[in-house]
Amino acid sequence: MRFDVISLFPDMFSVVRDMGVTGRAHKQDRWSLAVWNPRDFTHDVHRTVDDRPYGGGPGMVMMAEPLEQAVNAAKAAAQAAAALAGRNADRDIPVVLMSPTGRRFDQACAQEFAHGDGAILICGRYEGVDQRFIDRCVTHEVSMGDFVLSGGEIAALAIIDSAVRLLPGVLNDAESALQDSFNTALTGLLDSPHYTRPEEYCGLSVPDTLMSGHHENIAAWRRRQSLALTAARRPDLIESARQAGLLSKADEKFLKELKPA
Ligand code: SAH
Question: What is the reported pTM?
Answer without folding.
Answer: 0.95
